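Q: I'm building a small set of examples for a reading group on sequence design. Run inverse folding on the following structure and report the sequence directly after it, with nothing in between.
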């Protein structure tokens, strides 16, 4: 198989753009002139952004990436959606990325299986700065990202990230959470990947029952959210979201987007469009 390693497909709503590689990995995610992700995805390593399906069997945890070159997925796109689909561990899955509008997007995960205990872990590398500022020194930029985490009874944890180093006239802001209840979070890549990842290529967090549930800020801004555990008895769904603002003038005291998230989801056209498969 010959894989095109440079061509990208492009989704755009207003000032928000996402470029995907043919593998389905995110190459670049931007809002206005702000790069949301930290590292460009590539055709060999894929993207740090991913959603993992985890299957629990007694003390054993099997995990499977659902997006990109390391997954078993087929990848297709429409005008403002992208879709990954496949089957792992006797579970049929479908992930749909919805660009609701220029500030809000959703990762909808649909599962179909029988008798398995599963959960989902969503990970996102965070840049939240001008492209050249990030690429000149990713670790330095990460030190200026302030993570504030809030919890409520209905949806679990919401991770809010503010760029404390002024970008032009603005302080960009990113909010991530889920529509259903999540039970775990982490905010730094060292929590998620661990030191052993260099040798094993296995994120340490995926082998543990729970994410760290600790706000940690070092030099590798990588947020993760863990869904509640689900017993598959047919079809079930779980939805993660992201929302961005160009400017958040003050330190974060509460999540910025409240009613807007649910309203954006309710307003989405849930009918599946005609997707074009990307080879």
């Amino acid at each position: 198989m010959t894989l095109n390693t440079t061509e990208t497909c492009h989704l755009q709503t207003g000032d928000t753009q996402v470029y995907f590689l043919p593998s389905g990995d995110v190459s670049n995610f931007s809002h206005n002139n702000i790069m949301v992700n930290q590292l460009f995805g590539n055709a060999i390593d894929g993207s740090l952004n991913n959603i993992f399906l985890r299957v629990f069997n007694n003390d054993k945890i099997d995990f499977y990436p659902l997006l990109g070159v390391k997954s078993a997925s087929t990848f297709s796109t429409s005008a403002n959606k992208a879709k990954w689909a496949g089957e792992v561990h006797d579970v049929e899955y479908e992930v749909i990325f919805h660009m609701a509008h220029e500030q809000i997007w959703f990762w909808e995960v649909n599962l179909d299986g029988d008798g398995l205990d599963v959960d989902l872990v969503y990970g996102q590398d965070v840049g939240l700065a001008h492209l050249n500022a990030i690429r000149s020194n990713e670790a330095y930029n990460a030190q200026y990202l302030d993570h504030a985490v809030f919890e409520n009874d209905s949806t679990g944890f919401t991770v809010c990230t503010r760029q404390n180093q002024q970008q032009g006239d603005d302080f960009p802001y990113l909010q991530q959470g889920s529509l259903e209840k999540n039970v775990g979070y982490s905010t730094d890549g060292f929590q998620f990947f661990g030191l052993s990842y260099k040798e094993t290529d296995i994120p340490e967090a995926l082998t543990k029952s729970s994410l760290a549930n600790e706000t940690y800020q070092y030099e590798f801004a990588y947020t993760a959210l863990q869904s509640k555990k689900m017993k598959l008895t047919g079809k079930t769904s779980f939805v993660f979201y992201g929302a961005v603002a160009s400017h958040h003038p003050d330190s974060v005291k509460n999540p910025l987007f409240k009613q807007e998230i649910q309203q954006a989801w309710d307003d989405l056209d849930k009918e599946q469009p005609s997707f074009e498969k990307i080879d």
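The helical segments are 131-136, 138-142, 189-193, 197-200, 259-267.
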